[in-house]
Amino acid sequence: MMTNDPKRFGAQAFARLKALDAFSDHPDHLERLYLSPAHRKAADAVVAMMHEAGCDSVSIDALGTVVGRYEAKEAGRPALLIGSHIDTVKDAGSYDGMLGVIAGIGVIEALHEAGERLDFAVEILAFGDEENVRFPSNLSSSRAIAGSFDFSTLDGRDENGISLRDALIQFGGDPDGITALARKKEDVIGYVEMHIEQGPVLDQENRPIGIVTAISGASRRRIIVTGEAGHAGTVPMALRKDSLMTAAEMTLAIEKIGAAAENGVATIGQMQVEPGAVNVIPGRVRFTVDARAPRDSVREKLVADIEATIRAIATQRKVQVEIQPFYDSPAAPASTAIMQGLAAAMEARQMETRYLPSGAGHDAMVMGALCPMGMMFVRCKDGISHNPAESMTEEDAGLAIAILLDFVRSYRPT
Amino acid sequence: MMTNDPKRFGAQAFARLKALDAFSDHPDHLERLYLSPAHRKAADAVVAMMHEAGCDSVSIDALGTVVGRYEAKEAGRPALLIGSHIDTVKDAGSYDGMLGVIAGIGVIEALHEAGERLDFAVEILAFGDEENVRFPSNLSSSRAIAGSFDFSTLDGRDENGISLRDALIQFGGDPDGITALARKKEDVIGYVEMHIEQGPVLDQENRPIGIVTAISGASRRRIIVTGEAGHAGTVPMALRKDSLMTAAEMTLAIEKIGAAAENGVATIGQMQVEPGAVNVIPGRVRFTVDARAPRDSVREKLVADIEATIRAIATQRKVQVEIQPFYDSPAAPASTAIMQGLAAAMEARQMETRYLPSGAGHDAMVMGALCPMGMMFVRCKDGISHNPAESMTEEDAGLAIAILLDFVRSYRPT
User: Fold this and answer.
1) Which residues of A touch B292 (CB under 8 A)?
2) Is B292 in Cβ contact with A232 (below 8 Å)?
3) Using one digit for the tens of pLDDT, what is the confidence trace for B18-56?
4) Which of B233, B271, B360 lies nearest to residue A359, judging by beta carbons?
5) How far away is chain B from the Cα of A262, in angstroms, using its nearest Cα?
6) What are the chain B neighbours of A268 within 8 Å (beta carbons)?
7) Could you give the maximum distance between any two Cα atoms of chain B, in Å?
8) How confident is the model at residue B3 (pLDDT cuts 50, 70, 90)?
């Protein structure tokens, strides 16, 4: 009987992850976009794995999500959901998303082998549209479950002009069945997702596992600095209204503000300099700011501080500045019950708990609107993800599944 | 008899400048590239103006330079050269270059009307290849006079694939006659060029005229900062190796170093950020530095300070940096005799002298290798040039020509 053996969990998980690696739409690297042929094959493989693990029922829903259910002591009880996704970015790694699905399969397999039924059902959800690479949708497969599906995205098209609606029908899905996917709140008692961290914190601190406190909210701004172009030789430094020098001062100030915010980050990912000639003082610079924090009040202050500082620097340097907001999304806090349950499972194994926010978005963000939500992060080497160099150890995977199993066994929703 | 009447000089100069405005290769704006049909027409017009002013001989040389000579008391004496250029950038203003040619014409006209012959001849040179827009040449028409013509540029082509050699023949020039254009040092006693400042210093200080101390040397470097790309949400600020934050710190340091150098300037005109996504920490930033100073020792220290600071910032932020030099040109100091002569002419009119470097290149830079060189700057509105908004007053032009005439009359080469 297999009860809770991290080593065996790790080996089985890695075998299943390796099996999924085979399903790619690209011959040379891993690429499994939503509703592609490789996605369909991977979904079918996950169906088989769920059956093999002992799920009582397995199906692929109207949006392509693979759903496996392991019943409670009494049939028809509400379910604890364990989910993540099996779609990938282009030229992807093997663990981002797939780990959480395989972990759910490992948990049910262990319960099934032990002949153990809980007071609640356990369901695994293998979502298909988390990376948002192919269509202009956003976490559509988890949104459908949470009842927040945006039907306008059905008309969105991929780069070949194929609509999400047509691709869904081609895949074997059913646009008319989406509404019925929404779960009733009384049918679910929680959603838990295991995911590689996609950041360097756990790896740097040499910890295998972290407990997510919240998925950070994000605010994005486009900044346009308009000074005065001029000849690089003839305009003395004191008489310049240099847009790039201004933008550089703003950039460093934003770095400082971001570093001072509690668990906050601020990133300038794009910057364009005009006219962009070696011997011309830049007349205009455009750049973006992406600011995130796990608490909305922190993010709001972060953004307000950044905007005020940008305006002050522009005023002081006598240049014009325009600030254009183009994205604001609130934070999704994790459930205290789930955080405490995960912490108890870690402490029972003499592991120190490490709480950290998720700076990246996940299906859990959407599921938090339906039910208590929580996430476990597993360290990945150097924090690298969305890259074939994405890497984690079998040992960490096994330990994480063991802790997830302990958590599930003792979970009591508040 | 017209001796030295600034008002009349201004009116005549502006009439001639306006006449030259008519010769454009573009129907909607002023565009007169080297050896174009408009250049030919403008050159012919300048020939006529030189004859009208009283030049004893006028010709268009093998490279298209219009040369007008007003003999000394004795024929065949060495000449003081007054020059500038009649080619323009695309969508140009009316004064950049043309002012200096028209000023020379005004000076000879005044001498001729007064029946006055000097101990030296006076020649006007209307160069045709100063802006270096059409061909990959560099001040070729003045280089030929100074004996530094680069014959490899004859094979350079414009954007239509026409070589400089073929365009020159088409224009009526003679590639085989270039070598003979080089003047002997004993035949020239100086070169003086009047030019709009193309910078804001005189306009800001409300002065009509400045005396150029030197044409600044320039050094250019390409900087490549390589940090680590990463997810804008998942990498805490303290664990980042952000190429753009590093480049911003370098940029501000360069601004400070440039401002501290005596008459120095430092410009970052180009910056590219990679990968350039709103939610990705920049992994690489490439930018250019253009540093200039009128004294080579100042420029060399300026560049050395910039390079050392760039390396120190990279080391402190634990990112890689590469510094690629791609241009270094020394300063061309103005002749003390010419600066003193211009100062005396200004002081005689109770004008305060203002010395300033030229941050932009001019034909005078090349001519300085042949003979004592000097330049007068005339204020232009807001320092704007290379633009149809380029503007100066008739009054300033008249005053500048009067001073140039005073200078020429009393010039004694050292």
Assistant:
1) 232-233
2) yes
3) 999 999 999 999 999 999 999 999 999 999 999 999 999
4) B233
5) 11
6) 244-245, 282
7) 84
8) low
Tell me what pLDDT residue B207 has. Answer: 98
How is residue A281 written in tokens?
A: 């003082």
Determine the residue among A231, A254, A281, A290 to mutate to test chain B binding: the one whose Cβ has the most chain B Cβ atoms within 10 Å.
Answer: A231
Contacts of A269 in chain B (CB under 8 A): 232, 273, 276-282
Phi, psi of A329 (to 5 degrees): -135, 135
Beta carbons of A199 and B236 less than 8 Å apart = yes
In the A/B pair of chains, how many CB contacts fall below 8 A? 189
Q: Which tens digits make up the pLDDT trace of A85-97?
A: 999 999 999 999 9
Residues of B in contact with A201 (CB under 8 A): 236, 239
Domains and CATH numbers, chain B: 6-215+331-410 (3.40.630.10), 217-329 (3.30.70.360)
DSSP codes of every residue in B218-235: EEEEEEEEE---EETTTS
> Where would I find the beta strands (DSSP E) of B227-301?
230-231, 265-267, 271-274, 280-281, 284-293
Cβ neighbours of B291 in A, within 8 Å? none
Phi-psi region of B78 (alpha: psi -120 to 50; beta: other; left: phi over 0): beta
